[in-house]
C-alpha cells in the first residue's frame, strides 16, 4: 500500500506543488510558528521567529508555515521577513530552500494578507481553511453545507487569481465530518486549483485505525485526488497525534504537519522529532518512506523552541526529553555497557546529541583561562574553529550570559547559545 517497491531516490526530489516525483518521499510541513505559537503563552518575537525559521530550514523541513498574517500587522511582518530571507537563501546542507506558507481563513481579506506576506518567497504557499463538520458549520460558522462548499471553492479560486500556484486547503474538523460531504468539498477545491488537501483531526478525536481508514477512504473516493498531495494535521488531545500521523502516512498521505516539541493548541500537535525519527527507525515497516530532514539538527531546534516559547520539554518526552537517553537502573546500565542496542533503538548522535559531550562538562561564570580553552575546544568539537580576538569576544559574551543567568552550561547549551549568537548577529 505504501509503495515500497517503487521507492527510488532516497534524496529530496524536485519540488512540484501538487506532485512528488518519488512516491516514498514524505514532505514535512512544520507549523511551529503558526499552530505551535497558538499554545497558551508561547508568543515569540519577530526576531525569534526568524531565528527559528532559519533553524527549520537548516533542519531541512519542506514547508514552513510561518504564521497567520491576517491575525495582526506584526504577524504579517514576521511572515514577510521569513519569506524574504529564509524563503530565498539556502542554509541547509543539501542547499534546499523551503516553501513559505501563510494561513488564511476562507475570506478575501485573510487570503490577501497571506499572499502579501508569502509572495516574496521563491516558493510561496497560501493555506486556507473552513470547517466541514456539522458541529462547526452549525454552531461556529452558522452556514449550510452548500454555503461552505461555495465559499471553499471561491476562495481557492481567489487565491489562484492572485497568482499563487501552491494552495493548500484544509476542511477543519475533517476527523468528525460526514464522509460524503468531505469528499465533495475536496473535489470542489481540487477543481478550483488546490494543490494540497490537508486532513485535520482538529480536536484529536480519531484513533489511529480510524485515521488510517479516513485517509484511505479519501484516496479511494475523491475524484481528482490523484492530482494533489494528501496531508495530515493531527492534534494530540488523546495523546495520539504521532500515531495518527504515521497511520495517515501509511495510508498514503505524503505531507505531514508537525511542530517542534509537539507544541500547539491545547495538548499540541504531532511532534516533528517523533514523526521523523519513527519513520527513520521503522522505515522498512513503513514501506520505505523517507523525509528530507537532517536529524542532526533536531536537538538544537528543540532547545531553541523551548527557550523562545518558554514551553519546557518534559524530561521523559520521546526523542528530545532530558531522560530520553538516560539509563538509570543497574540492569539497564549493565546491558548498555555490553551493547548499546540492548536499551537504545536510536542513537543520540543521530539527533545531534553527543553522549560524551554531555558528560559532566560544565562551563560557568567562574571559568577563566581554562574556561576560555574549554569553550574553544567545545566549539571546535561542534565544528566552529575560533581564535584570537574572535575567541576573546565570544568568551566575554559567554561569561556575561553565565553571570546574568547564574547557571553553568553544558556542552549542548553552549552549542545552542553559540548558534543563537551567530544567527542573531546576522
Ligand atoms: O487544527 C486544525 O484544524 C488547524 C487547521 C487550520 C489546519 O490548525
UniProtKB/TrEMBL annotation:
Catalytic activity: 3-methyl-2-oxobutanoate + acetyl-CoA + H2O = (2S)-2-isopropylmalate + CoA + H(+)
GO cellular component: chloroplast
GO biological process, one term: L-leucine biosynthetic process
Keyword Transport carried by entry: no
The protein's enzyme class: transferase
Annotated metabolic or biological route of this protein: Amino-acid biosynthesis; L-leucine biosynthesis; L-leucine from 3-methyl-2-oxobutanoate: step 1/4
GO MF terms, alphabetically ordered: 2-isopropylmalate synthase activity; metal ion binding
Alphabetical UniProt keywords: Amino-acid biosynthesis, Branched-chain amino acid biosynthesis, Leucine biosynthesis, Metal-binding, Transferase
Pyruvate carboxyltransferase domain residues: 26-299
EC number(s) reported in the record: 2.3.3.13
Domain of life of the source: Eukaryota
Family note: Belongs to the alpha-IPM synthase/homocitrate synthase family. LeuA type 1 subfamily.
Protein name as it appears in the record: 2-isopropylmalate synthase
Part of the intact protein present: 61 to 486 of 647
